[in-house]
Design a protein that fits this description.
Its EC number is 2.6.1.-. The chain is α/β, with parallel strands linked by helices and about 425 residues long. The protein has twelve helices and 14 strands. The relative contact order is 0.18. The structure holds pyridoxal-5'-phosphate.
Length: about 425
């Protein structure tokens, strides 16, 4: 019999059924149950669904594409016209030095991030994830056989560079940076990013920079990590980036994002994954993306709206003791309910039952799977310090967030 496996090779990927579900998806189920029982909608602050929608030109573009029969396969990388427009955006707004061969259109940046993890995965490779992270980053790491190692955060919930520098050994590693961050709202300034990049270069790590919330840095301009590599020779570059149309343009359900590779060698790996996993992004949605890039004015308006909600509707949480500082960016605030005597799961369940407000409980943002030598997930614990954390989304209607915060304060006052 012909063997298709190298002698002695062990699977480095866990059994998929052992990978923990995402807490963000679990809370959806709790809300559906609440609504079925009570017959009224819950006030949903658990999910990042924005109050705004894309400009009319975007819908017009998708309708025209369908009407005109622009509904076929495109290249796996996406339409050159869209990638060229993205290169202009990446160059002028993000300061990247890139070209269309290094840019890949993806069906949402979730798919883009999975593609990047597939592209960097290698036997025994590790991924360095923030100790509190978006649960999908963890699922994707495990799905692609990257062993998660969690790095501590500083007092403002940004990556702790000194602690990262103490990580020893010479396994192949990828550092995941997510600024502005989900779920913490932390933003890394240029100095912080430079320190991370210097460390990655000195240790030979690749970097994945998830910049889905680039349009929502409130207190200072967003810095895109890859722009700090523009003066490094392409062969030496190591930063992959992921961007999304979902957040800035309010295009969550359209499923459109894009990723960049640092050089041709890495782009070849990304292309292979795209070919094998998506064939191509949907053509009408790509044409809608070109229309969206032609309407950048909405980005500032959307950011102003979310910042206004943060500054007016979220601010009262500072007086409840549940929130110590307003998030510097993104769509989420991370509350800490430990002083109320309840853990986050109980707080979230009782808040939903008693006040009809849904939040996402924090333990699911800090899971700790134990992966054995054969790459299998043996147990999944959570980080004790995250047992009091709750994520609140403030990208919805300002008045909805205001009412939700009022009810959270009422509930907390009863404890
Ligand atoms: C940190 C982060 N990255 C990426 C995404 C993916 O967004 P999309 O797949 O809609 O582009 C999200 C969505 O919530 C996110 O929070």
């Amino acid at each position: 019999m012909i063997s298709t496996q190298a002698p002695g090779a062990a699977s480095a990927r866990p059994t998929v059924a052992d990978i923990p579900p995402s807490c963000v998806h679990e809370v959806f189920r709790a809300v559906t149950e609440y609504e079925a029982t009570h017959g009224v909608p819950a006030l949903g602050l658990h999910v990042g669904e924005p109050a705004f929608r894309p400009p009319a030109a975007v819908a017009d573009a998708v309708l025209a594409a369908v009407r005109d029969g622009r509904t076929g396969y495109t290249t796996a990388e996406g339409l050159l016209e869209l990638r060229s427009a993205l290169v202009r955006k990446l160059t002028t707004r993000n300061g990247h030095d890139t070209d269309a061969d290094l840019v890949f259109v993806t069906p949402g940046s979730t798919q883009g991030l999975l593609t990047l993890m597939h592209a960097v995965a290698a036997p025994d490779a590790e991924i360095l994830l923030p100790s509190v992270h978006w649960p999908i980053h963890l699922q994707q790491s495990l799905l692609t056989g990257l062993r998660p190692v969690f790095y501590p955060l500083d007092d403002r919930l940004r990556p702790d560079v000194d602690a990262l520098a103490r990580i020893g050994g010479d396994r192949p590693r990828t550092l995941l940076v997510n600024s502005p961050n989900n779920p913490s709202g932390a933003v890394c300034d240029e100095r912080h990013l430079l320190a991370l990049l210097d460390l990655a270069h000195s240790r030979g790590w690749t970097v994945i920079s998830d910049e889905a919330y680039e349009d929502f840095a409130f207190d200072e301009d967003h810095t895109s990590l890859a722009c700090l590599e523009r003066n490094v020779s392409p062969d030496e570059r190591r930063v992959f980036s992921a961007f999304s149309f979902s957040k800035g343009y309010g295009m969550t359900g359209w499923r459109l994002g894009y990723v960049t590779a640092p050089n041709e060698r890495h782009a070849a790996a990304v292309r292979t994954v795209q070919e094998a996993s998506i064939m191509c992004p949907p053509e009408p949605v790509q044409l809608a993306g070109i229309a969206a890039l032609g309407e950048p004015e909405c980005l500032a308006a959307n950011k102003a709206m979310v910042r206004h909600t943060r500054d007016t509707a979220v601010r009262p949480l500072l007086d409840t003791g549940l929130l110590t500082r307003l998030p510097a960016g993104g769509w989420y605030a991370l509350l800490d309910c430990r002083a109320t005597g309840l853990d986050a799961d109980t707080f979230a369940a009782r808040l939903l039952a008693e006040q009809g407000v849904a939040l996402a409980a924090g333990p699911g943002f800090a899971l700790r799977p134990l992966v054995d030598a054969a790459g299998q997930v043996r147990t999944v614990d959570d980080e004790p310090e995250a047992r009091g954390l709750l994520r609140l989304a403030f990208c919805g209607e300002t008045e909805t967030v205001r009412e939700g915060v009022r009810r959270i304060a009422l509930f907390a006052a009863t404890l």
